[in-house]
Structure formats: C-alpha cells, structure tokens
C-alpha cells in the first residue's frame, strides 16, 4: 500500500537558493531518519522561497501509511522556517 503527499510551502527568511536548499536538506534528512519515508523536492527548484516536497510511504496497511504521513506533516510543521501552504495526500 502506497500513500503519497505533495506539500507546497514557503521557506521564510530564505534570501537565496543556497539558503533555501540548506533548510530543505535539514528537513529532508530529519524526516528520513525519523520516519523512514522517501522525501524530495519535486517542484519550484529554482524559486528561492517557494517549494514543493513529495513524500511517499509504503506499508502493508493503508491506515498505517496514512498515519505515518500525518506524523511527517506534523513534524514538518514544527520547523519555524518552513510554512506549509497546501497539502494533497493520495492513496496509490
């Protein structure tokens, strides 16, 4: 069972692509280490404050996969320099 999320967000305070990518690298590595999911920037790579992250979780149970995705989203919200603006969660 596969559950994915597309997360649009703003990296507040980023004044360059370098600063944005530093924030995203930190978020991505912490999410991967904490939740064992795949996460990558999938949109707006050349825009210095806006981003789209793709998150995917594979599990034997849809409920478990959705719970993990929700925990990841809550964890991402704990980063003060990242503001989530839109999220789409899908079962595949």
UniProtKB/TrEMBL annotation:
InterPro entries: DUF503, TT1725-like_sf. It holds the Pfam family DUF503. This is YlxP-like protein. The lineage of its organism: Bacteria, Bacillati, Bacillota, Bacilli, Bacillales.
């Amino acid at each position: 069972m596969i559950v994915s999320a597309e997360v649009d967000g703003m990296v507040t305070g980023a004044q360059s692509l370098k600063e944005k990518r530093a924030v995203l690298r930190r978020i991505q590595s912490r999410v991967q280490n904490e939740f064992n999911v795949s996460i990558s920037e999938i949109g707006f790579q050349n825009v210095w404050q806006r981003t789209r992250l793709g998150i995917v979780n594979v599990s034997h149970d849809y409920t478990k996969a959705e719970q993990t995705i929700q925990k990841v989203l809550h964890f991402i919200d704990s980063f003060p320099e990242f503001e989530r603006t839109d999220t789409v969660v899908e079962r595949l």
